[in-house]
Specification:
Number of helices: 4
Strand order of the largest sheet: 2-3-1-4
Number of domains: 2
Strand content: 35-45%
Structural class: alpha+beta
Shape: globular
CATH topology of the largest domain: Alpha-Beta Plaits
Largest sheet: 4 strands, antiparallel
Distance between the termini: 22 Å
CATH superfamily of the largest domain: Crispr-associated protein, domain 2
């Protein structure tokens, strides 16, 4: 896998537009992987530095990106940084984690996804994800980011998209290294094309 870091220029018009519409940012990122990018798992997360307002985008991919395809030399504040990664974990290991997620439940009658608005529900959602993804949550700070609304344009049609954004940060313990490795590779939860699901791990 590869992990890239893009430090966006907050004065760039396209950057501001894409921060407001994550689907457009996904389309820009996807260009770095060529025409066959749909066969690749691309995960990304936008982290905004509160003091400066500068946004850093972390992009995780199965294949090496070519960031020369970015719009222009004013899109980034500094050259893109990309490196291969091979995360290895062991059972029982404690790791710090960060995850921006779209915690939802599916309504039985309509089959539609409904955002989980209460912190207790969001914590329970993360614990369920952990059970199937090879980890146990030891401690977690839940940071609500509210509802994200934007228009998605496809084949000449516009559709309003509303997503609940929640950031989880804390400490986890590995229970199944293989399952956790798959979760890191494939992401956690829905809405991955809109900047959700990238699970970042670091030594505790």
């Amino acid at each position: 896998m590869y992990l890239s870091r893009l430090i966006l220029n907050p004065r760039n018009r396209q950057v501001r537009s894409e921060l407001a519409c994550p689907y457009e940012m996904h389309r820009t990122i996807a260009r770095a992987f060529g025409e066959d990018y749909e066969d690749d798992r691309i995960l990304y997360r936008v982290d905004v530095e509160r003091r400066t307002g500068v946004a850093t985008v972390l992009v995780q991919s199965l294949t090496e990106p070519d960031w020369s395809v970015l719009p222009d030399d004013r899109y980034l504040l500094e050259p893109a940084d990309s490196k291969p990664i091979a995360p290895g974990v062991s059972e029982g290991q404690l790791l710090s984690f960060r995850l921006r997620a779209n915690p939802v439940k599916r309504e039985k009658e309509s089959g539609r996804r409904q955002g989980l608005l209460q912190e207790e529900e969001q914590r329970a959602w993360l614990e369920r994800q952990g059970e199937r993804s090879g980890f146990r949550v030891v401690r977690c700070h839940v940071i609500p980011e509210g509802l994200q609304e934007f228009l998605r344009r496809s084949n000449g049609d516009e559709r309003k998209v509303t997503l609940l954004s929640v950031r989880f940060e804390g400490l986890l313990q590995v229970t199944d290294p293989d399952a956790l490795g798959a979760a890191v590779r494939d992401g956690i939860g829905p809405a991955k094309a809109f900047g959700f699901g990238l699970l970042s791990l670091a030594r505790a």
